[in-house]
């Protein structure tokens, strides 16, 4: 759709498009393809209203990453509404495993292009912040692929929530692009901040030692990123270029450790494409010009990331084999999450002058009974980040440098950061594979 700017009365236009969730859901027809944003950008009232009329529909497809509303993830929904999950969450995981929903492998950076070239969008829906005097909403905390979906959609539904922060950056939707408006004044879903374990604190300490002042950071979610942020509070002139804005990043900005003064591009700004965390994050981001939200095909583009000197990417994995292949999204064939931006940022950091990419894992799982460093990945496990893209692997026992190393040296370096209880059997397995 084309944005139409004029001196017209935007409030009158707003009122003319205002409707109930049920009325908005009625625009969906059998066979339609829908697209919703990830996380707190999901228009929950529209989703619930759609699920309530599912038996009136046949063959509706919902494309989305990281769902938060469970209403149509049931076996009896399949003939009516089928979900393509681009990244599974606690809501969609069981449905994907049982075949009630489908998983779509992807790099997060490529989703807008996939929308343009492969996936139809009949109806797009999203949470937005309230409209300003010029007729603009913002995508608030979930920019990602949202604007691409809005551009392509035949019909656009926005769920206006006054509790959604108004964000800066390339994240605006004009009322002329909108067909239907739902109002919803409800708290945004918060995520509890995970406690930092001793293992995660040790990993965070190793990482902090390898991150100099002036570095630009990308951090994922979980205990390790929180531990890293805690360890970096006394650093200087850090920058942020990350897909996820979280509590740890807000802490660094408030402490003054982040000022983005040395960034090669987007200097002076912390960049993200979506946000998760507590209300503290949402309130800090509201009308904050120090943070800009941009589409994921910019933020996660390895070529953009590679233009940032001293880029540091920090992500987590489930399992690493002795060549350095990382499975970060599945337990064998059980799809747990998705690739997200892990490979995007590993490749981007490797292109960066002075850049570093870290993949982090506890040395063991299941109360110390299973090694997370293994001779070979589990059968049917997904390779999230390839051996060619892995730079460093970090456990509570140290840092293994892999980039530029031979297969033999990689195996030795990885065994050295494995749990001591498993080093013997890893050495034996490596010998049998002629790795050492």
UniProtKB/TrEMBL annotation:
<dbReference type="InterPro" id="IPR038460">
    <property type="entry name" value="AcetylCoA_hyd_C_sf"/>
</dbReference>
<dbReference type="InterPro" id="IPR026888">
    <property type="entry name" value="AcetylCoA_hyd_C"/>
</dbReference>
<dbReference type="Pfam" id="PF13336">
    <property type="entry name" value="AcetylCoA_hyd_C"/>
</dbReference>
<feature type="domain" description="Acetyl-CoA hydrolase/transferase C-terminal">
    <location>
        <begin position="277"/>
        <end position="430"/>
    </location>
</feature>
<dbReference type="GO" id="GO:0006083">
    <property type="term" value="P:acetate metabolic process"/>
</dbReference>
<keyword id="KW-0378">Hydrolase</keyword>
<comment type="similarity">
    <text>Belongs to the acetyl-CoA hydrolase/transferase family.</text>
</comment>
<feature type="domain" description="Acetyl-CoA hydrolase/transferase N-terminal">
    <location>
        <begin position="10"/>
        <end position="186"/>
    </location>
</feature>
<dbReference type="InterPro" id="IPR037171">
    <property type="entry name" value="NagB/RpiA_transferase-like"/>
</dbReference>
<dbReference type="InterPro" id="IPR046433">
    <property type="entry name" value="ActCoA_hydro"/>
</dbReference>
<dbReference type="Pfam" id="PF02550">
    <property type="entry name" value="AcetylCoA_hydro"/>
</dbReference>
<dbReference type="GO" id="GO:0008775">
    <property type="term" value="F:acetate CoA-transferase activity"/>
</dbReference>
<dbReference type="GO" id="GO:0016787">
    <property type="term" value="F:hydrolase activity"/>
</dbReference>
<protein>
    <submittedName>
        <fullName>Acyl-CoA hydrolase</fullName>
    </submittedName>
</protein>
<keyword id="KW-0808">Transferase</keyword>
<dbReference type="InterPro" id="IPR003702">
    <property type="entry name" value="ActCoA_hydro_N"/>
</dbReference>
């Amino acid at each position: 759709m084309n944005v139409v700017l004029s001196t017209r009365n935007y409030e009158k236009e707003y009122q003319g498009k205002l409707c109930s969730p049920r009325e908005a859901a009625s625009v969906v027809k059998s066979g339609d393809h829908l697209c919703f944003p990830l996380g707190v950008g999901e228009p929950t009232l529209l989703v619930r209203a759609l699920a309530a009329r599912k038996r009136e529909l046949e063959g509706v497809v919902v494309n989305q990453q990281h769902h938060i509303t469970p209403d149509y993830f049931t076996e009896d929904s399949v003939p009516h509404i089928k979900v393509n999950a681009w990244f599974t969450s606690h809501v969609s995981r069981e449905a994907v495993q049982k075949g009630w929903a489908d998983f779509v492998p992807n790099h997060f950076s490529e989703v807008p292009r996939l929308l343009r070239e492969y996936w139809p969008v009949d109806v797009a829906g999203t949470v937005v912040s309230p409209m300003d005097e010029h007729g603009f909403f913002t995508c608030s905390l979930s920019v990602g692929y949202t604007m691409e979906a809005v551009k392509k959609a035949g019909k656009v539904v926005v769920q206006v929530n006054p509790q959604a922060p108004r964000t800066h950056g390339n994240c605006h939707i004009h009322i002329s692009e909108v067909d239907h408006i739902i109002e919803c004044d409800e708290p945004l879903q918060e995520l509890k901040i995970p406690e930092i374990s001793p293992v995660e604190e040790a990993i965070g300490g190793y990482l902090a030692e390898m991150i100099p002042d002036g570095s630009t950071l990308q951090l994922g979610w979980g205990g390790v990123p929180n531990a890293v942020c805690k360890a970096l509070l006394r650093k200087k002139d850090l920058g942020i270029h990350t897909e996820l804005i979280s509590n740890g990043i807000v802490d660094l900005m408030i402490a003054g450790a982040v000022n983005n003064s040395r960034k090669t591009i987007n200097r002076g700004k912390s960049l993200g494409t979506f946000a998760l965390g507590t209300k503290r994050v949402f309130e800090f981001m509201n009308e904050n010009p120090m943070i800009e939200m941009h589409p994921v095909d910019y933020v996660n583009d390895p070529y953009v990331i590679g233009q940032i000197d001293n880029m540091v990417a920090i992500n987590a994995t489930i399992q690493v084999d002795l060549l350095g292949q990382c499975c970060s999204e599945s337990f064998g064939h059980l799809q747990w999450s998705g690739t997200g931006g892990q490979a995007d940022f590993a490749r981007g950091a490797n292109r960066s002058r002075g850049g570093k990419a870290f993949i982090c894992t506890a040395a063991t799982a299941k109360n110390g009974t299973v090694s997370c460093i293994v001779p070979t990945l589990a059968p049917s496990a997904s390779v999230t980040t390839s051996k060619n893209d892995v730079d460093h692997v970090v456990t509570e026992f140290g840092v293994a440098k892999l980039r530029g190393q031979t297969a033999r040296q990689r195996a030795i370096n990885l065994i050295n950061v494995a749990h001591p209880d498993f080093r013997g059997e890893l050495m034996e397995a490596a010998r049998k594979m002629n790795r050492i």
